[in-house]
Amino acid sequence: MDFSKQKHFLETFGYLVAPGLLKEDMPWIEKAFEAALQERGAAHDRTKRTGYVAFVDQSERLCTLLDHPGVEALLSGLLGENFNYIMSDGNCFVGDTHWHIDGAQWGGLSFFLKVGVYLDPVTRDTGCLRTIPGAHRVDYAPGWNNVQARDSLFDPDGPNPAMERWGIDQRDMPSVAMESQPGDVVMFRLNMLHAAFGGSDRRRMFSLVCCPHCETEEEVRLLETCITKYRLHPSYELPRDVMRKTASPRRMRHLQQVLEIETRLLAQAPQEARAL
Ligand SMILES: O=C(O)CCC(=O)C(=O)O
User: Fold this and answer.
1) 269 SS3 class
2) Using CB atoms within 10 A of its CB, is residue 148 exposed (0-12), middle (13-18) or buried (19+)?
3) How far is ligand 1, taken at its centre, from the CA of residue 271, in Å?
């Protein structure tokens, strides 16, 4: 299938929804999701987010999402045939998630794609992801600093900055609602401002972070930063091997570069790498 239009849309606006891509698979995905939560000993008390990194990586069944023909074809179309899988998380969210950027402190985030699946129907006012189209194009609009915009939108201890600045509530920020049904896949560049409002107290979602195969020195540096911040964090250590140990040669194509870089970083400076 030709994904060039979707790729263009993603490049232009920074997000994309693939409706129904995993619809047939939701029964086993839901089972595997709940099993993985249990394995982690999750005791979600519905007052605050429960979240785990390396979530997909710990479950042999969930790891097969990378082998899913529809997922692989879509990600190959968007990121290139040898795209990299980097990391995953699994969550039960509670209520609102304020505007933020994932990993805002490091640059080049438009290189990375978050691929998310909500296990429950979510709409504009019941906790679907919202995002501001084009907010990833820091290169395009001089003066547009999406990290600054994030900071202007969320100050956990202060008054509501959106109200102070524009006289509106956070949930009234101009944005697109990426409404989704179970089986839809929602994607956005990591440096997109995103938020969710009005969600339930057990809003289940997991995500994979991927990027193109790195060719230039700059791309390799970006991937090194991402690996150092996430994969080399001690919380990622335990379960990540399931992904590699159960990988077919085809899946390995999406793991190889990340594993090579990770091995090199650990060999170079294991303590420093893990301390980050
Ligand atoms: O669903 C939510 O509440 C927010 C999800 C989110 O911020 C994320 O996955 O990065």
Assistant:
1) coil
2) exposed
3) 31
Q: How far is the CA of 164 from the centre of ligand 1 (A)?
A: 24
User: Tokens 């290189």 map to which residue?
Assistant: 111
Stated length of the chain: 276
Q: Please give the tally of structural domains in the chain.
A: 1
How many whole angstroms from 154 Cα to the centroid of ligand 1? Answer: 15
Mean local confidence (pLDDT), 202-227: 94
- Domain encompassing residue 115: 4-275
More confident residue, 193 or 249: 249
Per-residue confidence band for 103, with pLDDT thresholds at 50, 70 and 90: low
Per-residue pLDDT band for 276 (boundaries 50, 70, 90) equals very low
In sequence order, what are the residues at sequence separation of 6 or more whose Cβ sits closer than 8 angstroms to the Cβ of residue 36? 52, 55, 56, 58, 59, 62, 90
Look at residue 192 and tell me whether its pLDDT is greater than 60: yes
pTM for this entry? 0.92
Ligand 1 and 194: CB distance under 6 A: yes
Mutating to test ligand 1, I would choose from 93, 136, 154 the residue with most ligand atoms within 8 A of its C-beta, which is: 93
Contact in structure between 171 and 13 (CB atoms under 8 Å): no
Radius of gyration of the chain (CA): 18
Give the separation between CA 43 and CA 47, rounded to whole angstroms: 11
pLDDT digit string, tens, across residues 218-233? 999 989 988 988 888 7
Distance 176 CA to ligand 1 centre (A): 14
CATH code: domain of residue 187 = 2.60.120.620
Is the CB of 90 within 6 Å of ligand 1?
A: no
